[in-house]
Design goal:
By secondary structure, this protein is of the alpha+beta class. 35% of the residues lie in helices and 27% in strands.
């Protein structure tokens, strides 16, 4: 007896393959990582880079965990964003170590100068921030062979205008009331563009001045570019 072919019917054992849903947070993590890397190379944008780096790491971890749990697509992209964010964090730390804080030239206003203390010359405003930056470090003391303490203040001078130049600088140390403690000067010869020079100023061995300089506020009062 002739019977027509019966149509095939899906059985309960048949499983339809469904493509995992895409998770857009992975791409956002990659974008944050790339932006943070760019910000790490631009010192004024380090704050933005730090925020985007944190967001990129957070989104990368969330996307990777969610992708494993719910079989979402984009886990590889999330890991790429996480790696970029971590690399940008390393770059931000390296940038901070290499260039220091942005605008660190006399970073705090400090005390107002007492009457009679010479103020910064007009040339200082034209040189600092446009030609060079000057950063003061924390005063350090060393014990001399004579048993006395010598104080010194580390200074970093960075050429920011891209052209080689020499710079004659004069510094003041003021106490908490703005009174002048002492002055010092330094000459930085042939500093190439985008390069920095490390100096030591206020190298003094004096039992009276050493404690005062350890608490002093420092500023540039003369800056001449040759």
């Amino acid at each position: 007896m002739y019977t027509a072919d019966r149509p095939r019917v899906a059985t309960a054992d048949y499983e339809q393959r469904v493509r995992p849903a895409k998770d857009p947070l992975g791409r956002v993590s990659v974008a944050c990582g790339l932006l943070a890397l760019v910000c790490a190379m631009v010192p004024p944008a380090r704050t933005v880079g730090l925020l985007t780096c944190f967001v990129g790491i957070l989104l990368g971890l969330i996307t990777a965990a969610r992708g494993r749990r719910h079989r979402r697509d984009g886990v590889e992209v999330a890991w790429a964003g996480l790696v970029l964010a971590v690399l940008s964090a390393v770059g931000l730390v390296a940038s901070q170590a290499a260039f220091g804080s942005v605008g660190d030239t006399n970073p705090t206003p400090g005390p107002s100068a007492a009457p009679g203390v010479p103020g910064p010359s007009a040339a200082v405003a034209n040189v600092l921030g446009t030609v060079i930056t000057v950063t003061f470090g924390t005063p350090r003391t060393e014990l001399e062979d004579t048993g006395k303490h010598m104080v010194s203040v580390p200074v970093t001078v960075t050429n920011i205008n891209g052209r080689s130049g020499s710079y004659d600088l004069t510094f003041q140390a003021l106490d908490s009331k703005g009174r002048l403690i002492t002055t010092d000067s330094a000459f930085v010869p042939n500093l190439d563009g985008r390069q920095s020079a490390q100096l030591r100023v206020f190298n003094i061995v004096n039992d009276t001045l050493v404690p005062q300089l350890m608490k002093a506020h420092f500023r540039v009062v003369e800056a001449v570019a040759d």
